[in-house]
Amino acid sequence: MSALIELIKVLRERTGAGLMDCKTALIANANDIEKSITWLREKGIAKNAKKAGRVAAEGLTQMKIAGDEAVIVEINCETDFVAHADPFIALLNEVTDIALANKAENVDALMGMKDKTGHDVAFLFNDAGIKLGEKLSLRRVIVVTKKPEQLFGSYVHMGGAISVLSVINGKDQEIADTIAMCIASNNPVYASINEVSKEELAKEKTIQLEAAKDDPSFAKKPEAIQEKIIEGRITKHFEAQVLDFGEYVVDPSKTVGQVLKEHSMTVESFVKWQVGEGIEKKHDDLAEEVAKQLEGAK
Fold first, then answer.
1. Among 128, 208, 240, 246, which one is least packed by beta carbons within 10 Å?
2. What is the rounded CA–CA span in Å between residue 169 and residue 178?
3. What is the DSSP letter of 190?
4. Phi and psi of 61, rounded to 5°?
5. How far from 41 is each of 8, 20, 75, 135, CA to CA, in Å?
6. What is the pTM of this model?
7. Spatial separation of the C-alpha atoms in residues 74 and 89, rounded to whole Å
8. What digits encode the pLDDT tens for the residues 185-195?
């Protein structure tokens, strides 16, 4: 029985079919996994709906640029192994192409868009999920448009673990791409200090003024000097969050802001996506679950 349980577990992982359907398929196909998968698909039993409770936190992002338009797509799966499997890469390529060609505004719109054969993205996900035996999720998509005189700065880390796309005012493509690399490395929230809201700046100023009360030497300084000290502390607080203040990765002696100024360039906007960020992973003992359900089905 234990051998059968293991086969049922594998077949369920691969197809999303119910336990009894998996058992029936294996019996009908002499315990051959691949033949059982085909049998379940032919009978319309194999599906991804029963994987809904599982967490897809691995995967890849992909970015494609065509003229003045670019797209980033993130597709998640359950394991890093599947993220690098050929069917997953094929799905990622196809969905990214569809998103760019149709200027997909959001995930829901993209799921209904069709490939050249007439199949929609939802069908492509279901089909790939059955082949791979994992829950797949189209997490997010964004299409970015720039002006003809602007540049896209792009950087992809570890084959899609991180994708960065920036819109740059300037003419040096190499610098633009290096700035995107800096964004991946420094993980800023803002391009410049000017993007920090007045409310956030005011809040931090209040915090720094309150903290200064515990510094006896601060009170002895002239008011103009106090203001400069507070401004400096506010700037330091936001340094880690502002791209301009970050290290220029190919020349750590300079900041990103210095390099941009040297080349008369500015960052209009940027997008940085890291696979699985914000998704809480969970770990289940599927073998135990299968054994319990089979026991209850007796």
1. 240
2. 14
3. B
4. -105, 160
5. 16, 15, 24, 16
6. 0.75
7. 12
8. 999 999 999 99
